[in-house]
Fold:
Amino acid sequence: MSKLISYEHKNTPIHKLSGFTKLVFFLIWCTASALTFDTRILLCMLVIGFVIYKVSDTKWKQVSAVFTAVMIFMTINLLAIFFFAPYQGCKIYGSRTEIAHLFGNVYLTQEQLFYEFNVFIKYFTVIPAVFIFLVTTDPSELAASLNGVGVPYSIAYSLEIALRYIPDVQDEFRKIKNAQEARGIEMSSKGRLMERMKNTVSIIFPLLFSSMERIDVVSNAMELRGFGKKKKRSWYSRRPLKAADFAVLAFIVVFFIGSMIITYHDGNRFFNPFV
Amino acid sequence: MKIGIKEVVAMGIGTALFVVLTNVQIPVFVVPNTAIQPRMAILAFLAAVFGPIVGAVVGFAGHALGDAFFYGSVWWSWVVPEAVVGIAIGFFAKKFAVKEGGFASGKNLIIFNVVQVVANAVAWIVVAPVLDILIYAEPSDKVFSQGAIAFILNIIAIGILGSLLLVAYSRIAGSSSGLKAEE
Structure:
């Protein structure tokens, strides 16, 4: 199982921002990247993303394993788009400039290449945002700051529990898998489909039932400590929003509105260099 | 609707479980790059036990976090349908009464499977491809065939694994009524 990206304590300006600020930035950033197909804005986001990546002092080895996985997934997706719709680009940009004849009646066109190039850089605008959010945000502080801006604390707390228990559940998963393999149950991709299904069950069953037990234990402990009795609760790791947080929030809102205006001012969300 | 302590914890640990199982996949050789995802069975199980809110959160947060942790990017158009499945199955949680041994009889098992097939159809054949086209402007042939494959694989995952998990858990959790009077 590949190593997950996880929070690492450092002292950069990005780490000092409130978790709430980073979450809002991350969500608006992803929305902007999803909505716009304007190449100029995407390239601009690419540069900003790279600058933030450098400022956040994220080390390559923290994220390299996941990065490889994204690259594989992206390549498959780009090929699938070409395979299913070799003229999607022509449909979008309304023209057809052939470069080469590939096979059958499939031609490589500039429009298709440009469309897939846009899809390609879209990946690279989102990837740094995800990496930076995950490696610079302390789960406890995120929950505290979410509650600070009005998210009900039960929701904030369940998010914190999720982030807190991912490593634990992963450990448990590994233990069960090793134990089952020691008993001679084959986990690799050798067996037949039904065989593999059955073998997966032999991990999922104990894992799910131990998780159900964990839910009972944790919720009993929380009940004993009086969780949910009052309308408010206090947090150890709360940090009030500072000037830098407001600056970042203002920037992302302005950036979002600006990029939407530039994207949509000519009626659709594609930047068309072919006219 | 008030969220109890148990639901808060179930959302958290359920999401963690869903995220961890993101990487556990059973590849199907007929179609390249597709796999049966056992995590779907976990989602269906948690929704059937804890209700629609837990189902929605585990589906949404679990898929988003799982994508982020393992693939470094979040594919929002497939995150939303995951929540749809969780909510749809969760609506029948009271009826299923899993913890009270409701799955010991075959009736709930049939309802559960009808619900999951309908929910998956709406989620993967309608919601996911439409969002793919709206958000990412992907070619419609591609997204609808991807959606159809996801639909089939997910009903297999939930139909087999999910049903097994529910029947087994229901038998264990509801067994307090299995006491027999001594003669």
